[in-house]
Specification:
Length: about 400
């Protein structure tokens, strides 16, 4: 079924937002829930573990948007201040990944509640964005169109207008002189974080020629010949390369090469994907576990890499990719903390989540530096990475990989 906009005016949105801020400010403070490292063994089944990660984020972060039950978003922090819960501050690309994880969950175990959540999150993004589905950042728009395309393909939940608008903006952002899409509109930085997901989106939407060109750009302009990894980006004109190598940049490059290997049958893309997976295994894992990130935006980096490693394992039979996902999932689960029986993941899956000194209740951490110290994080991004990882692990196990 196609879900179209219902004539939502900006005036109505702003009135609802103002009312929400007032009501949220008057709400009762969050209950003091104790964080503990004395975790239960929990289920062995990967699907049940993914379901618990889903439940944790839904309970802690997912809220109605401005009093509209049919629209939802995820608060950026938990526990959150009244300002956080009113969605005055938000992050487009975090919400796109929340939507993508909700699609994963509904595909794992379809229920009316999960389908309704996918629809409500998509509508929430559209309304909170105020100006439509698009924004100025090509990486942001790529993440959202990927989530919406998967919702259609895997669940039959269709937002055709959104996919058309976002896809048109990605194609419109093409710079023929450079042969790529920049990080944002009218920018001179061509980042892997935009080129990779834009290429995957173009491939899935049928524009294989552009997707090939983007894959070639990453391979010829941004690949480090010494390590085999993909650099962060390049400034054009001038050709100044940012030589930082980040986990999610490798993830989207693997995803793009995998997508093209599937859709074109060309062996070059399969070889490139395998080489990138091998480089990640050599240089971005510790005993097979994906290297740590930090909070804020980088909290999503590990999960994005896990998602596209799983795709390479499923589509190309890459056992190294599968092994990294499995090892990372075991480590993240083993080292989690618990709040009210639900998992809380750290920024480093290789070591236990730091638990503060007694009494260790989360609301006390809302205004404390302890909330972001060590391996403890309030960020939605970090928890989404954990959820994304466990969904990827489930997909591999379900497929016998």
């Amino acid at each position: 079924m196609d879900r179209r906009d219902k004539g939502i005016s900006r005036r109505n949105v702003l009135v609802a937002a103002g009312a929400s801020v007032v009501l949220t400010a008057l709400a009762e403070p969050a209950q003091a829930l104790t964080i503990t490292r004395k975790v239960s063994p929990g289920p062995d089944d990967p699907g049940q573990r993914a379901a618990l990660a889903e439940q944790a984020i839904v309970q802690r972060h997912v809220r109605t948007l401005w009093g509209r039950p049919q629209m939802r978003l995820g608060t950026l922090y938990w526990p959150g201040t009244w300002l956080d819960q009113s969605f005055v501050k938000w992050c487009y690309w975090w919400q796109a990944h929340l939507l993508d994880c909700a699609v994963d969950a509904a595909h794992r175990a379809r229920t009316p509640e999960r389908i309704e959540r996918v629809v409500a999150l998509a509508r929430g993004i559209r309304v909170r964005n105020l100006t439509g589905w698009t924004n100025r950042y090509y990486d942001d728009m790529s993440w959202l169109v990927l989530a919406l395309e998967r919702a259609d393909r895997l669940l039959g939940v269709r937002f055709s207008e959104a996919v058309d608008d976002l896809g048109a903006d990605l194609v419109g952002g093409w710079n023929p002189e450079i042969g790529a899409v920049p990080w944002r509109i009218d920018d001179e930085y061509y980042s892997t974080s935009a080129i990779g997901p834009a290429g995957i989106a173009m491939a899935r939407l049928g524009n294989l020629s552009r997707a090939r060109e983007l894959a070639d750009f990453l391979e010829t302009r941004l690949r480090d010949n010494d390590t085999g990894l993909i650099f962060d980006g390049i400034h054009e004109p001038g050709g100044r390369v940012d030589r930082t190598a980040l986990t999610y940049c490798q993830g989207v490059a693997i995803g793009l090469q995998t997508e093209l290997a599937i859709r074109t049958g060309e062996s070059a893309h399969r070889r490139r994907a395998a080489a990138l997976v091998a480089a990640v295994g050599d240089r971005m894992t510790d005993r097979g576990v994906i290297a740590a990130a930090s909070g804020d935006d980088s909290g999503l980096f590990m999960g994005i890499l896990a998602r596209y490693l799983a795709e390479a394992a499923l589509a190309l039979g890459d056992t190294t990719a599968a092994n990294i996902v499995h090892a990372s999932a075991r480590a993240a689960w083993q080292h989690r903390a618990e709040v009210d029986g639900l998992p809380l993941f750290g920024m480093d899956w290789r070591r236990p989540v730091t638990v503060p000194a007694p009494p260790g209740t989360f609301p006390q951490l809302m205004y404390s530096s302890a909330a972001s110290s060590g391996n403890l994080s309030r960020d939605l991004s970090v928890q989404l990475s954990g959820w994304m990882l466990l969904e990827a692990d489930y997909q591999l196990v379900a497929a016998g990989r």
